[in-house]
Records
---
Amino acid sequence: MITVNYDKVCKDYSDTDIANGKYELSQVYNQYLPLVRSVCKRYYLHLYDTDDLQQEALIVCHKSIQRYNLDHKISFGAFYKLNLERHFCSLLRHEKSQKRMVDSIATSYEQYLEETANEICDQTTSYFSGIEATFLSKIDFIDTLVQLSAFEKSVLHLHLTTHKNKNEIATELNVKIEKIYCTFYQIKKKLRNKFGD
């Protein structure tokens, strides 16, 4: 592997000039552009293209110039390279943490269906007591509905969706109130038979 001394490449500004603030940012950046390209090739970041990485490198160059001190006995090229590598490592860590966050937020379709079913059951449990509440918390709600007659389904549907009482349901379905009471009794009986154990 060939190593390049980046301090010798197109040295327009000395370390002393940079430390004393006698520089132009664009020229210092262009002076170390081969270093930037070399470091950029080693890091693959999904969220950044080449232009984005070079812009990040320009920002790091500006910060490195502001923090550079001759007393640390390190050349500016080495100091800039170290800061650039650290910054790209931080970008990589940030990108990976975003991926983990997305993975933790993502849910399967089955889990979504289960949560939706639980929400529906939670909304309807306030209308029932005892064993019916246990039934409504289960996902096989649809299986039990298959066992109900068409009239029982319509009574249950009106009760759950429109929140009507027994008298209002009887009026809407044009039946006697006694039939509605019997229907509720039959629904509860079927629920108890299915979930009583």
---
Amino acid sequence: MIEISEFDESTAHQVFHSWLERDQRRLTSLQMEWLKPKLTPRVEYGIEMPTPLFLSLIYEFTYTWHSFDDNLDSGFEKAKTTKSAIKYLYARLSEKYGEVLFYRAMKYLKQAGGLSETELEDMLSADNEVLHSVFVHYLPPTDVFRLPGTLWIRIRNDMSKYLVEKNVDNVPVIYFYHRSFQDYDEFGRDDTRKVEVIRRAYYAGNVGHFLNLHDLPFEITSEKLIKMHRSSSLRVNRCLNRQQAYVKNIKGKDRIYNMRRINQLFMHMSDLCCEPWFLYDYNFISSYLHCYKISDLRASSWFYPTLRFLLTQYEACSFVLDKHPDNFAFDLSARLGSLVDILPEIIFKLFYQCLSHCALFMVENETPSPDLCMSKYVVGIVSTIGLDRDSGNLLVLLAEKLLSFHLEEFYLTSKIDEYELPSKEFTSLKYSESYICLYSTKHLLVMQCGQSKKCVLKLSIEDLIHVEFIKMGTLLVCSKGSKLVKVWDCLKETPIGQHPFDEAIIQCSTIKHDSGVVIKVTLETGITHYLLANVTKSNEENEVHFTHVGILKEKLGNDSILFNSETDVYYTEHQTSIYLYHFNRSENDHFKEIDNLPPMNGTVSLHNFFVNNKSDSALIWLTVDSAVILHSCGNHFNICGEYYAVCRTTGTFVGEFVCLINRSALEIYIFEWKCESGIHMYRLHARFQLDNKISHCVCNIGKSC
């Protein structure tokens, strides 16, 4: 036994020679020269080499060498890291046993986190691609149509040094003993999907659109075998073991749950390769709820609208079901009862499964309307809120802390992060990717969220009037009375560029652009400058570039709002016309007046959205009896009703939606509209009745894509 304090070159040589001595082996001087680069300490891709596992793999490879060998295998020469050594090992064994059979066996083990011998042989026997690769010249009897057990035994024997037996969910399974094998994943996304379909179908059984593995026919692709069997498809018995029920009820004892089956289906829910049909199965969900909570469920359901709807119903019941899982049948059937005429077929089947297991029934026509509110939180007095559409986080700024609610559909119930603030001075926020900027008229704080959760920039600035993230952690800062705008690199806490002006700044605003932001700066003289700022990377350093794109020497109205990256809109309250200033056009095409509009009352809101993969925009303002929407085409239309606010939108919507608030009636209205050939049509998309008065509102509405 050799005690290793530091794995230097002499230690590596000592270990290697001790193995040769133990096994009474010798290598030629040429072969020892081949090994020298492998035993030399070095750093490969940030990892110190050689590792003990790498050394062990290299030693195993030498077993195939002969004293007369004078040429080095190119695959061995490329094995410079533990990962590449595993790749070389797999390549050799796949050549020996067949690429499809070997790689699929390793993939099934990896995806399942370990399998029993029976489970693995069953899955390989259910995999037609594996059987095609093995049965090239003949087929086994149709009544015992399985992979020969000796094939896996041979693979297991060759891999015995890297496999270990352990107990998982009371089942003895075989798995990789070292994390490097567990993490190795160069099998291809398509292979992963095929393996996951069979693995999940094996444990789920015949539910949804999963393959019925027990009755799965074998499709013959070889012309020789088709002629031999006079058919291209055979009904076969693969002799697969059937799964035991999710739960056993033993008289006088507690229920016994089949944790092996439940956990195998529950695995990898954050990276679904196929639709998880078992989530529509009453037997699985009712058993799952006794072992886990709805909040433990993670599902990438974005691509499955029907599942997304069902998960919403599960979450709405979670407050009760997390405490009383036996109520599942009653609670879900009560929610789905009023929707029975429009339910998709697979959810309709689940609804009737619930009814058949429900001891209580809703009286007809007395089914309560479902509560559309998914989550409610008491947080205290709110300064402001924001919704980051890219990350799916709702940000709530309180006096002494910042709350971040993870609302993306990956999470069925909101995960909340709390950030304690150094003072109560912050009143506003901006956000971009993993950065959040909190600011007031005198102070600014930039935080990096996610795993690091740290403050990266803190500034004290008098009369701060505007901040905006550009990209790559860079922040534009502008203060009233200053004669320049600055751009800071938040991580390095240093300014990386600035643009000076001749006079003091009194107003500043920005709008996002493909390559950065458009900046509008108004000076004390009344002159307004339009700049394009973009950030590029040079020698690992951020660099900012300013381009002057326009100048307006006199204001066209008392108020203005950037309409898009090419147009500024000027208006005056109570007037019925606006002026469009196209600052990047030729001088003869700068201005356009739009008149005969409803009076411009109060605040004008900008609304961005996507239509046919193109960015578009509209202006929205409120009159006494309607909401006015002015589209980029130059036409406007009214949505009749008494509205008190336009819900602030974030990011860019997929589709043409607008959210309006009636504070006195505690109602939120969502309208969908479309513009065809300059003609606008709209409809009420949804209406929500609330219990409490609204002080702040943000929304993110869009069609599934």
